[in-house]
Each structure stands twice: as C-alpha cells, then as structure tokens.
Amino acid sequence: MKWRDKDINEPNVFLEEDFYTNVDKNLKIDETLYENKSNKRPYDKFDKNSRIKFYVILTLIAALVIIIFACIFIKSDREIVKYESMAKEYYKAGNYKEAAVIYEKLYEETGNIEYNIERSNVSRHIEADEIIREASNEVKLGGYEKAIEILLTVNPLDDTTANRVFQIKSQASSKWLSHIEKDIEDKKYQDAKTEIMRFLNLQPNHEQAIEIKKKIDNKLY
User: N or C: which end of the chain has fewer CB within 10 A?
Assistant: First the structure.
C-alpha cells in the first residue's frame, strides 16, 4: 500500500486506487498457484529416468518368469519321453507290471487318455501272464485237464502270448494222451475211454486224440 506525504503536518491518506491495484496483483498470484496445483498428477513425482528404469525392471522380471516356465515345461517334456521309452522297453521284455505302473503314472501326470489305454492293454497282458503261469503249474502237478481248461480262457493278445499258450497246451495234451495210452496198454479200456472223451470235449478236433479214441473203441467193441 502506498502513502503520500504532502506535508509533514498533514495526516497520511490511504488512496483507493492503491487498494485495488494490490488486490488485483494478489488475485493473479492466487490464480497462478491454483493452476500449478491443478495441473499436477500423481506420477509426476517420477522423472523420466525413473519411469524408464521401472519399465526395464518390469520387463526383465516378466522375461525371467517366462524363461523359468519354459525350462520347467522342457524338463517335464523330456521326462515324459524318457518314461515312455522305459515303458515300451518293459513291455517288449515282457515286464508288464513295470510297464503298467509307468503308464499309470504318465496318465496321472498328463491326463492323456492314450496312456490310460496303454495301461489297460498292458493290464490284459498281466492277466494273461498270470493265467499262463497257473496253467504251467497245473501241468507240473499232473493236472493236464485243468491246465487246458485254464489256457482256453486266455485271449492271445500278441504272437508271444499265443506261442506261450500253444506250447503249454501242447505239453499238457501230450502228457495227458500218454497217460491214456498207458491205460490202454494196461488194458484199462474203460478208464481210457473216459479220459479220451474228456480230452475231446476240450479239444474236439485234436487228430491224435481222435485216433486214440478209435483204438479204444476197437478194443471195447
């Protein structure tokens, strides 16, 4: 504010024009402050270099996460290939139980239905293998009829299984027919007739058994 001294003895007078001039200046200063405050945004506290560093760090973290997941996937994929090969080797070697365990594990880990199908296929081999072993034990114990009955229930899933069934059944048949022929030699014709009929009931087209039956019939009639 401005005071004028016309005379030292006169009182100072406050001029109205000075008042309005000062008010106008104050208003302009307040408006400038308001504009500066209203134009500020939250992220203005970061300067340009800080924002660049932030984005670089964020990009590096994202890249690292991608690399980690990629490594995990590659490792998992390699493990799957490894166990697939192991299962196939066990299957070829006839180690069906080991192969079934691996296929079941692969199915649990991946959810791939193909592994479940392979497991079911191997399980049928396990069942057939157990039946063949049981039949083989019956042959050793002299239960030829029971051995053949068991073998007739086996589904030959492949050539290996079919050959095993054929060999054991041939062994059981040969020993059973030898026992029948021994009865004929001992003139136990009725016993021989009973046995040969039971044999033909299981294997009606067996040529050797048919010939033995004819021999027995000739002795009896």
Answer: C
Helix or strand or coil: residue 4?
A: strand
| Single-letter amino acid, residue 13 | V
C-beta neighbour count of 157 within 10 angstroms: 14
Q: How many CB atoms lie within 10 A of CB 115?
A: 22
Per DSSP, 13 falls in state E
**What 3-state class would DSSP assign to 3?**
strand
Dist CA 142 CA 148 (whole Å) = 11
Q: How far apart, in whole angstroms, are the C-alpha atoms of residue 145 and residue 169?
A: 10
pLDDT tens digit string along 86-99?
Answer: 888 888 888 888 89
- Residue 151 burial class via C-beta count within 10 angstroms: exposed 0-12, middle 13-18, buried 19 and up: buried
In a domain, 88, yes or no: yes
Q: What share of the chain is helix, strand, coil (3-state, %, to 5)?
A: 80, 0, 20
Q: pLDDT tens digits for 140-157?
A: 999 999 999 999 999 887
DSSP string computed for 63-103: HHHHHHHHHHHHHHHHHHHHHHHHHHHHHHTT-HHHHHHHH
CA-nearest of 144, 131, 141 to 198 is 144
CA–CA distance, 207 with 47 (Å, rounded to integer) = 101
Residues 94 and 183 in one domain: yes
